[in-house]
Amino acid sequence: QLQLVESGGGLVQPGGSLRLSCAASGLISGYYAIGWFRQAPGKEREGISCISTGDGSIAYEDSVKGRFTISRDSVKKTVYLQLNSLKPEDTAVYYCAVRTGFVWGCRLRGSEYPDWGQGTQVMVSS
Description:
Blueprint: E1 3-7, E2 10-12, E3 18-25, E4 32-39, E5 46-52, E6 58-60, E7 68-73, E8 78-83, E9 92-100, E10 115-116, E11 120-124
Parallel strand pairs: 2-11
Antiparallel strand pairs: 1-3, 3-8, 4-5, 4-9, 5-6, 7-8, 9-10, 9-11
């Protein structure tokens, strides 16, 4: 059974940094794409970044470009999301999700990712 576990969330001051991790285990082999999503209270879930192990594609939502960086460790089957220059509006629960198979050009559509982690809370406040 495929399982995703997020970690690395916490409370940080504006301008601070966090690194989120998404560790995949279970029936995950070959190619896959990992997406990071977030949901703030009272708001819809939004996709913020993704990475495909197939074609190596990476994508970012406009509001996080230049501040967030996605990367992966293929041996550990872990995807990281480095969050820099954090703003109060980045406060949300952050989720990672996986889509197995070869993915050409990962996209930030939650409906394309069948399996999800439990989420990790990020709070940006002074």
